[in-house]
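A favour, since you know our structure tokens better than I do. It will help me judge whether the discrete encoding reads sensibly. The space below this message is yours for that.
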Amino acid sequence: MKFTSSIVLIFVAASLHASESAEVSLLNSIPHNYFECEEVNAILKVYDRLILKSGKPNSIVDVTIKLPRIGFLSRPITCISIEDLDGNGYGGFPEVVSGGLNHRFVTISLESQVGKGLSFSVKIYTDQSASQQPVRYLLEEEASEEEE
């Protein structure tokens, strides 16, 4: 009886492990996109940037985007589109950390998987306003590079 119980227990453990592996495999095949838009005139693009960073062995690569770097936009954000260009599920993970849709600022964190790089297209829109012109906003690290 103990022998049969042990075999059943081993079979259940192996099945659970295979199930977890299948779930991880399925998760890794899904791109990590973020898309949040209102159904308004989200036609004024205030940020359009490719974020490309090489991976580092056994490390996580991260990038923080703050829009605007200081203060607030003159109009609320109406659309945030972050596209995982890897598309194979091994890209990074986008997260809106603060602000975002219907706010006049946003902080976005892009974080790679261990040992992988980042490859994202980030676009942010507000509604049309005659007083606001498209502006190129810098990543924090770019700003410090330009100051040197």
Residues 1-30 form one domain. The mean pLDDT is 76. DSSP finds two helices and seven strands in the chain.
